[in-house]
Design goal:
Layout: H1 35-46, H2 55-69, E1 72-73, H3 75-88, E2 92-97, E3 112-113, E4 121-122, E5 135-139, H4 144-157, E6 161-166, H5 177-184, H6 187-191, E7 198-202, H7 217-222, H8 237-243, E8 247-250, H9 254-266, E9 273-277, E10 289-290, E11 303-304, E12 315-319, H10 323-334, E13 340-345, E14 347-349, H11 353-360, E15 368-376, H12 382-390, E16 399-404, H13 415-429
Parallel strand pairs: 2-5, 2-6, 6-7, 7-9, 8-9, 12-13, 12-15, 15-16
Antiparallel strand pairs: 1-10, 3-4, 8-14, 11-13
Helix pairs in contact: 1-2, 1-3, 3-9, 4-5
């Protein structure tokens, strides 16, 4: 009796193995796509559909077309370029969740509805090419437990399907917590079953109250299987991906979202991917990416450092997610571009040790190192990041915390208090 005898879908010929049937780890190739492909997808995604759509949709399509002509992508277009390019390469793409066809924040619009004929719809990403794979996008019922469990099973059946489940707000995944705890985080360790399931969890402290702010990042990070006391100096990023139980990202650019989704299919193995997606960044004018960041030779960036000389920096702020844009704009308002540098960590797990080590070495020994997060101290990524960054600092240096105070609730429900907390967060971040 072999372990594979218990598997109903052993993924024959998916893994490349040596003579002893031990899987061979190959470097993940670059995940950029030809610009000609990007242009085809952008044109189809922004073109007038063959049905009568709402005037508001026409305005959105016109805006997409203008962006595409400028060779730029916002969040919705970046995601569509990832899905579309995979479809055209022969990968099946599947997206489910509450209101995913339109997108909770009315940004996606993958299914367009005829205004005169009830039930008549048009899906642009299903009409890219005659040879493309099928794109399945479906609004789901209000049962996160049931739907997430189904999508996990689907992802385990076929390694060549990009299977994504999106929570309406990241907070809502909590009713599917047993699926995450029992299966997604530990399924490979317990049952030797890999899964490439992607969980998209809208996350961000934007004054929307305790039930619409936090995807509880700390819960996912607490279940990661890496050792906080190790620098993993002898392991490449691909080896770390192979060894980890899942990947966890808090992404800030459409280009990185594009590469993260494509990397799921380009890896020679499968791991669950948890992405804390933005809300306000979906339309933020700074949260755009050039097509140059998605063409051949480009890849996912686990960290995004300052692209300038940092020799005069008095403080290095490390952060992840949407708070970067708050810090970036506030730093400009205070005229502190030379004194304070900001580096984004886009992939939290597996932790990009070699890249963080190289980034810290760019700064003078006197530079203050600070972690800034918008979440409360007992939430977010602080307790995960702190020991891992500290490993790369000298014995007489330490990383300092800036963020909200510990709290039982994920966020305040009082708008005035939210603004007070935000002001303190900015003041503390830029104190020298």
């Amino acid at each position: 009796m072999k372990l594979t005898d218990w598997l109903d879908s052993p993924w024959d010929e998916f893994f490349e193995c040596d003579a002893n049937k031990v899987p061979i780890l190959r470097e993940t190739p670059a995940t950029g796509a030809n610009e000609s492909v990007l242009k085809i997808i952008a044109e189809k995604f922004s073109a007038d559909p063959p049905i009568k759509v709402h005037p508001g949709i026409k305005r959105i399509l016109k805006g997409r077309k203008k962006m595409a002509e400028a060779r730029e992508a916002d969040w919705a277009l970046g995601e569509a370029l990832a899905f579309g390019s995979l479809l055209m390469e022969g990968y099946h793409v599947r997206l489910s969740g509450q209101d995913v066809e339109r997108g909770t924040f009315s940004h996606r619009h993958h299914v367009l509805h005829d205004q005169d004929v009830d039930g008549k719809v048009y899906n642009p990403l299903q009409n890219l090419s005659s040879s493309q794979q099928k794109y399945s996008v479906s609004n789901s019922s209000l049962s996160e437990f049931g739907v997430l469990g189904f999508e996990l099973g689907f992802s385990q059946h076929n390694p060549n399907s990009l299977v994504c489940w999106e929570a309406q707000f990241g907070d809502f995944f909590n009713t599917a917590q047993p699926i995450v705890d029992q299966f997604i985080s530990s399924g490979q360790h317990k049952w030797y079953r890999q899964s490439g399931l992607v969980m998209l969890l809208p996350h961000g402290m934007e004054g929307m109250g305790p039930e619409h702010s936090s995807a509880r990042m700390e819960r996912f990070l607490q279940m990661c299987n890496d050792d906080e006391d190790s620098k993993y100096e002898d392991k490449s990023l691909d080896q770390q991906l192979w060894d980890c139980n899942w990947s966890i990202m808090n992404i800030t650019t459409p280009a990185n979202m594009f590469h993260a989704l494509r990397r799921q299919m380009y890896m020679k193995f499968r791991k669950p991917l948890i992405i804390f997606t933005p809300k306000s960044l979906l339309r933020h004018p700074l949260a755009r990416s050039s097509f140059d960041e998605m063409t051949p030779g480009t890849s996912f960036r686990p960290i995004i450092p300052e692209d300038k000389d940092v020799g005069k920096a008095k403080k290095l702020i490390l952060c992840t997610g949407k708070v970067y844009y708050d810090l970036y704009e506030e730093r400009a308002n205070r005229g502190l571009e030379d004194e304070i540098a900001i580096t984004r960590i886009e992939q939290l797990h597996p932790f990009p040790h070699s890249l963080i080590d190289a980034e810290l070495k760019r700064y003078p020994a006197r530079t203050q190192i600070q972690w800034v997060q918008e979440e409360h101290k007992n939430s977010g990524s602080w307790t995960y990041v702190k020991p891992r960054v500290q490993n790369h600092l000298s014995s007489d240096a330490s990383i300092q915390y800036v963020g909200r105070e510990p709290a039982a609730s994920a966020a305040t429900g009082n708008k005035k208090l939210h603004k007070t907390e935000y002001k303190k967060l900015m003041d503390d971040s830029f104190a020298l």
